[in-house]
Amino acid sequence: MEVAFYLSALIAVAATVLAITRYHAVHALLFLIVSLLALAVVFFIMGAHFAAALEVIIYAGAIMVLFIFAIMMLNLGKATIEWERQLLRPRVWVLPALLTLVLAAELIYLLAIRGGPESSGIELVRPARVGAELFGFYILGVEMAAFLLMAGLVGAYHIGRREKKVIHRYLKKEEV
Amino acid sequence: MSSEDFRSLLPLLILAAASILLLVVIAVRRDHRLVYYLTVAALAAALAASLIPVEYSPRTASPLLVIDGFSLFYSALLNAAGLIVVVLSYTYLRPLREQMEEYYVLILLAVLGSVILAASRHFASFFLGLELLSVSLYTLVGYMVRSRDRSMEAGLKYLILAAAAAAFLLFGMALVFYEAGQLGFSGIGKYLAEAEALSLLIITGFGLIIIGIGFKLALAPFHMWAADVYEGAPAPVSALVATVSKGGVVAVLLRFYSEVDGYQFPVLALLFSIFAAASMLGGNLLALLQDNVKRILGYSSIAHLGYLIVAFLSGGAMAAGAATFYLVAYFITILVAFGVVAHLSSGEQEAEKLEDYRSLFWRRPGTAVVFTAALLSLAGIPLTAGFIGKFYIAAAGAQEGLWVLLFILAASSVIGLYYYLRIIMAMFASAKDPAQRIAPLFSGVGLLLVILTVALVWLGVFPQAMLDMINEWVAG
User: Fold this and answer.
1) Do A138 and B124 make contact, defined as CB atoms within 8 angstroms?
2) Distance CA B124, CA A139 (A)
């Protein structure tokens, strides 16, 4: 158990350092995903299975969606195809894939020994308890988080909005 | 939660509901004036609600928030400051070609975050309130993306540095939680009272939390952002950063420190002493050679928060009272100062250079007199609120024997006098062309500035009423 924890923690730290030091955003994203997956394994070892699942779905999953979006939006012809081909060179994906494999092996091992966190004296936090805490003790915190997201949304809308530029009334430039 | 809980949370609920209402109104029809009136009404209602429900306090409305005299006083103060900023904003924003309506939503959310901070007694609400405040401010600082060059730069700078500071804060909280096993302030206090020896981890955690707070208060050496953000942000937003953002953080710092009895750690006291001394000297020295009035006010805010930390450090019976009184005085003063800057700005161009203020007295005598009063109060000249505030800080510090810090306070105040007087000298310099005098226009902002100036002088001459109120609400 301890070995598994330290191994995934090490992968998390290493992947984060690699994510920060990559020049290419897409390569950095790959390592960020590995880092988040490693964190999910750490959560799993600590008995927070629900948090581990959320980590995979929300963080790693959302980044994948963003990744696909970026490639879709930037689909600008031949240059992009060449660029995409470069993204898929083995040099780029082998290391993240290896790290993910290690994590997967760890997870399989953890599931196989079946001892689970209960045997090592770690309290298992089930989704029902997370929900009860969120909508009981922390209900105002959830509301505050909602307003935090609202502030972010309004801000992103304002900063990202593209203005209709009217140079002359005969030369109207429509919204791009 | 009972109906009394809802009643006691009324100031927060009003702000939250109003921000949603504004979004709905904007979705139906964009109308700057309507949104403005709704915002003013919401802030006024929240201000009234903070002053009324005394009979319910103290009330632990949720494990996260406590509504007592302290939080209600700060809530009233923050709502009042928000209200003044909104009034200043309306005439300032009107000539600009931006969509103005979201600005008011963000101001409401920033004030909400700050009030949450003032009422929080738990790390969760502490962090969420701080983030709500910061996220609203990122956009507000960079709101003029399309009409001003430096706006985006200031916003981005604030975003990156504030996010880094939030990471420090969060890591500090995690370390404290790891040791104490508690997230509530009182729980941590209980743990500390029972623990015989304190581990290095918990001290490190407190240190990291203090760094996060120090950043928000722009204490040296975390002050790098202050001048750039004050300069790049629209003048009313600079006022918001100087008042609402700092007020909420000071409130949560006072509450956190008194609940965990942080005064028992000499290491933290030393840390704060270094920050205070560096802020007082650094802020005043950096302001000396500036030619931009908004930058000068930014650097002076660093120094003023340094003074406030001296009051906070005294830790005696007077600490919370002296710090709060100083904050009230500083709020009024800086709102007048930025109010004048906003008042003199016209559409695309902000009146921020010292040149814009040269011989202002001969052109707009009323504005110049109001600005002079604010600058004298910032310098701490008798008969102004700033003087009484500094006097109480000195009294609180002397009671606890913080002589080195008091000496630095006195010395740096003298340095500060130079650049305040420089602006005043420029304003009263004789005009080359005396015919330029502009007939005084009657305006709401002008009236507001006069009222604030009267409050400034009144607080400097008869401080007793405010002191009694602070003693009853905050210290009691």
Assistant:
1) yes
2) 11
Contacts of B293 (CB under 8 A, 6+ apart): B341, B351, B352, B353, B354, B356, B357, B423
What Rg do the C-alpha atoms of chain A give, in angstroms?
A: 22
pLDDT tens per residue, chain B (476 residues)? 677 788 888 999 999 999 999 999 999 998 999 999 999 999 999 999 998 755 666 778 788 999 888 999 999 999 999 999 999 999 888 888 778 899 999 999 999 999 999 999 999 999 999 999 999 999 999 998 877 878 889 999 999 999 999 999 999 999 999 999 999 999 999 999 888 778 899 999 999 999 999 999 999 899 989 999 999 999 999 999 999 999 999 999 999 998 888 888 888 899 999 999 999 999 999 999 899 999 999 999 999 999 999 999 987 777 889 999 999 999 999 999 999 999 888 767 788 888 888 888 888 888 999 999 999 999 999 999 999 999 999 999 998 888 999 999 999 999 999 999 999 999 998 876 655 566 556 678 889 999 999 999 999 999 999 999 888 888 76
Chain-centroid distance of CA B447 in Å reads: 22
User: Which H, E and C letters describe chain A, residue by residue?
Assistant: CHHHHHHHHHHHHHHHHHHHHCCCHHHHHHHHHHHHHHHHHHHHHCCCHHHHHHHHHHHHHHHHHHHHHHHHHCCCCHHHHHHHHHHCCHHHHHHHHHHHHHHHHHHHHHHHHCCHHHHCCCCCCCHHHHHHHHCCCCHHHHHHHHHHHHHHHHHHHHHHCCCCCECCCCCECCCC
As a whole number of angstroms, the distance between CA B334 and CA B209 comes to 27
Distance from C-alpha of B346 to C-alpha of B354, rounded to nearest angstrom: 16
B274 part of contact set with chain A, CB < 8 Å: no
B134 to chain A, closest Cα gap in Å: 9
Neighbours of B73 (CB within 10 A): 21
Q: Under an 8 A CB cutoff, do B102 and A147 touch?
A: no
Backbone angles phi, psi at A162, to 5 degrees: -100, 130
Using an 8 Å Cβ cutoff, are A39 and A77 in contact?
no
Integer Cα distance of B139 and B151 in angstroms = 10
Helix (H, G, I), strand (E, B) or coil at B65: strand
Q: In this complex, do B125 and A141 lie within 8 Å of one another by their Cβ atoms?
A: yes
- ipTM beyond 0.90? yes
Flag whether residue B181 sits within 8 Å of chain A, measured between CB atoms: no
B236 vs B242, B251, B328, B446, CA distance in Å? 10, 22, 18, 15
Structure tokens at B274: 């270094």
Q: How far is A77 from chain B (nearest CA, A)?
A: 31
**B100 secondary structure, DSSP code:** -
Q: How many CA atoms lie within 13 A of A169 on its CB side?
A: 0
Q: Angle at the Cα of A127 (from A105 to B123), degrees rounded to 5?
A: 100
Q: Nearest Cβ partner of B64 from A141, A147, A159?
A: A141
A130-133 long-range Cβ contacts below 8 angstroms, 24+ apart? A130/A50, A130/A51
A137: its two tokens = 């003790």
In angstroms, the first-to-last Cα distance of chain A is 55
Distance from CA of B439 to the nearest CA of A (A): 36
Give which of A2, A22, A42 is closest to A96, Cα–Cα.
A22
